[in-house]
Amino acid sequence: MLKLDLSNITSFVPENYLTSRKDGLEQAASMIWSHTGPGGDFTGWVDLPRNYDKEEFARIQAAAKKIQQQSQVLVVIGIGGSYLGARAVIDLLCSPNYNLKKKDTPDIFFAGNGLSTDNLLELIDLIGDRDFSVNVISKSGTTTEPAIAFRIFKGLLEKKYGKEGAKDRIYATTDKARGALKGLADAEGYEEFVVPDAIGGRFSVLTAVGLLPIAAAGVDIQALMDGARRAMEELSAPGLDNPAWQYAAARNALEEGGKCVEMLAGYEPRFRFFAEWWKQLYGESQGKEGKGMLPASLEYTADLHSMGQYIQEGRRIMCETVVSFAPKGEYVIPDDPENIDGLNFLSGKPLAFVADRAMRGVMLAHVDGGVPNILIQMPVISEASVGYLIYFFEYVCGLSGHLLKINPFDQPGVEAYKSNMFALLGKPGYEEKQAELEKRI
Length: 441
Prior knowledge:
- The chain is an alpha/beta fold and 441 residues long.
- It contains 16 helices and 10 strands.
- It has a 5-stranded mixed β-sheet with strand order 1-10-9-7-8, sandwiched between helices. A 5-stranded parallel β-sheet has the order 3-2-4-5-6, with helices on both faces.
- The longest helix is centred in the middle third of the chain and has 24 residues, at 144-167.
- The mean pLDDT is 97.
């Protein structure tokens, strides 16, 4: 299903970049599939497409139908991996204009992923008098941004429907056994779904964390899982002909060669939030111990008119991965008898042809300018292809993380900002740190 083109990196990496990493890739794959090595306790995602909880999956599908019948709006509360995966899939499969389209499914709004007062007030205004439900996603229930948002929207639900009516519209995706949200959900009688212990947030899109809001948007989550399962089965085969191995080796070789920024580029506007999900996946997994390429994203062709100059002639610290999807339909460029714009040489040609030639031309220009390019070609955007691509990027992330000899599945650095934020907000127990930080600001 996925075609990987590495022909435009050959002048930037040693000829033996792939074969010289065979032993490392074999070891990395072995650790991932055996759930061993650094972070092995958090590799439950690797066989998830085959071993997912079928009973919970059926409950997710039933809950999604209930939300569709009961509500005109679903508010999804979560941050990081509890937000980006669902939004990425909904935008890619349903459109970034999903909420503006005529449909039989509810609008999907995301909350708890920031601290903007203006954004919160706007969201409340957009919901208006419409019936709505809430899916709150948090393993602990105490993460600041989603906890504040849930406090607010829980109050709005209870004001509109009463306490009994509200609990029928709240779906809690949280820890299976402990935590503040788990305790509240048990006490109030919310329907609950599980954030798995063995799967970190950035790898959780194919669990209840992502699947409930995705299903509520009308996506066929069984087809999504089937696509991921196909990827799991195809990419599990060891060997240097495995595209996941090839991509992981290429990334590692490019980083060793001095490239410290990887730009993920797409030519579909609906790919934007998939790239945001990818940035968290790779940034949080590999940005540690002074290692890892900085993940960035570009939306072509629009960003060629803003970032194109820097990419072509700026600092030579970048490599580029381009994801291309086959078009679903066709639109032929019409003829203009007056040819005012001088583009009649394109008359009668499909717009997709123009897009492909533009992509190829841009890639070659960037390569000539010192930016190695990797191309990932996918079939049309569908549940199956998106599920496949999610799994591909997750697996490559694990492989290339192990090649860096770091733990790809922890995130120790995120505690630093959280500690400072809690101190400056006056959280009990942080008094000494608060006094220290206040002197600095």
